[in-house]
Structures are given as C-alpha cells and as structure tokens.
Amino acid sequence: MRIAILGAGQMARALGAGWSAAGHDLAIGARNPQQANDTAAHIGGTAYATTIPEAAAFGEAVLLALPVPALSAVLRAAAPHLANRTLIDCTNAYSPDSFAPGSPGFTLTESAVAERIAATAPDAYVVKAFNLCAAEVWSSPTRDFDGRPLAVPLCGDDPAALDTVASLAEDLKLRPIRAGGLAQTRYLEATSAFIVGLWFSGHDARAAFPPLEAAFAVPDGD
Ligand SMILES: NC(=O)c1ccc[n+]([C@@H]2O[C@H](COP(=O)([O-])OP(=O)(O)OC[C@H]3O[C@@H](n4cnc5c(N)ncnc54)[C@H](OP(=O)(O)O)[C@@H]3O)[C@@H](O)[C@H]2O)c1
Questions:
Q1: Which keywords has UniProt assigned to this entry (predicted)?
Q2: How many whole angstroms from 66 Cα to the centroid of ligand 1?
Q3: Which atom of ligand 1 is closest in space to residue 137's alpha carbon?
C-alpha cells in the first residue's frame, strides 16, 4: 500500500520503519526537507522525502504525525488530496507536551482532536490509533507482555478505513481492537492523557486493570 506520513519526527520514524519493513511504499512529507530526507533514510525501503501536499497526494493511507497545533495549517495544505483517503490520527493534545515531576499528570488543550480533523477533512475517513504508547514502544520488537499481546485500539466510522488500519497494525505485529466510532475518539484521547500521566508518575497503569476474564464484562471475541 502507498502510505504518506505528514511530519518527520519520532512517530513518523517508528511507524514508518515498521510499515516499510512490511513492504509498504512510503512518502514522508515535512516542511523541513533535510528532516524529511533523514527520516526517509531512517525508514529505508522505498521511502522518499517530499513536501506535505505531495505526500498527501501519494498516500492511500495518510498518517498525521504532527503536533496538534500544526494540524489546521497542514490539513489546509493537504486537503485537496485527502478525499476518500484513510486518515490516521495518532496525535495527543498534551499541554504541555512534557511531564513536570510532581504534577498531577497531563492535561489536554482540546478534548476532541480527531473529531476536529474529521470536520476539517470531511471527505477523508479518520481513524484514531497509535496514540496510547510511546514511539519507542511502536518501534520495539517486543509485542508480548506477560503473555498478553500488545493491542491498538482503533476508533473511526468507516469500516473500510478501520480494516485498512487494522491491517497496518497487524503489519507491526500488533493486535487491533475495534473500539468504536469517531464519537469514541475523544475518550481514547482522554485515556492517553490519564494513562501516560500514570506511567510518568511511576505507576504501572496495567496493574489497575484485571484480565478480561476477571473483569465481570462480556468477552466480545475480538
Ligand atoms: N513521540 C511519541 O512517543 C508519541 C506517542 C504517541 C503519540 N504521539 C503524538 O504524535 C504526534 C507526533 O509526535 P512526534 O513525537 O512524532 O513529534 P516530533 O518528533 O516533534 O515530530 C513532529 C513533526 O511535525 C513537524 N511539525 C511541527 N510543527 C509543524 C507545522 N506547523 N507544520 C508542519 N510540520 C510541523 C515537525 O517538523 P519541524 O521539526 O520542522 O517542527 C516534525 O517533523 C504528536 O501529536 C504526539 O502527541 C507521540
């Protein structure tokens, strides 16, 4: 598949390298040509560096690997090319985008980024994914923790776009979980702020969650 990544930082490198290794063709669109070149070289395979609009035109799926404040301008530049594309949103609107020791955790500058993206690019099919874990986790070969495979919640309204992102998650040896529609993305975003805050405070977030069979919930077979 042809994948565009808009942004050439940590998430572009982590996810892009995995998709390239799985045989996908990538275009890295960034405002800084040197950074785009370096990231394309890091990703390897057929990955090449280009501008943001040209990358958007290339991608059947487009990953937004950008800080939230950059989204409006980048989406405006890419908008003519986004119709009918799977638009993957991995962003987190942390404020600030760093953790202050002793602080109660992360807060968000806005509560529904993926919904705003969908409103800004109404002809694209937005899927929120990959926002919960750090880039280092996505690029690590470790995919199993205490016998529990690492999963990626996916939220979006379009079934075909969800299928595409599920397949891209599987290419990274991750287990996709279809976790609801676009209306659920704001909760996935809030979950990130809360859980990452726990991790940065030194707590094992998973310790707060029993396995499914002990959670008094109905297994869905996903
Ligand atoms: N890193 C993680 O562990 C992680 C995990 C989950 C989710 N996320 C989310 O993923 C997104 C990307 O994070 P990242 O860590 O990859 O960020 P990053 O390493 O800082 O890279 C961000 C990229 O966006 C570009 N950019 C910034 N402002 C721009 C603008 N106004 N116009 C065009 N390009 C712009 C940067 O280019 P310049 O260098 O030119 O500014 C850079 O190429 C963020 O929303 C973050 O919250 C990150």
A1: Oxidoreductase
A2: 4
A3: 3
Distance CA 96, CA 94 (A): 5
Instruction: State how far the Cα of 150 lies from the Cα of 142, in Å rounded to an integer.
Output: 9
- Per-residue pLDDT tens, the chain, 222 aa: give them: 999 999 999 999 999 999 999 999 999 999 999 999 999 999 999 999 999 999 999 999 999 999 999 999 999 999 999 999 999 999 999 987 667 777 767 899 999 999 999 999 999 999 999 999 999 999 999 999 999 999 999 999 999 999 999 999 999 999 999 999 999 999 999 999 999 999 998 999 999 999 998 998 876 555
| 12 sits in which H/E element | helix 10-21
- CATH assignment of the domain containing 172: 3.40.50.720
Report whether residue 42 contacts ligand 1, using a CB cutoff of 6 Å.
no
For residue 49, what are the domain limits? 2-214
Ligand 1 neighbourhood includes 53 CB (under 6 angstroms) = no
Residue 132 lies in a domain: yes
Is 113 a member of any domain?
yes
Q: How many residues does the chain have?
A: 222
Q: How far is the CA of 7 from the centre of ligand 1 (A)?
A: 6
The count of domains in the chain is 1
Beta strand extents in 11-121 (DSSP E only): 25-29, 48-50, 61-64, 86-89, 94-95, 107-108
- Gap from CA of 8 to ligand 1 centroid (Å): 7
The reply to whether 57 falls in a domain is: yes
Distance CA 171, CA 24 (A): 10
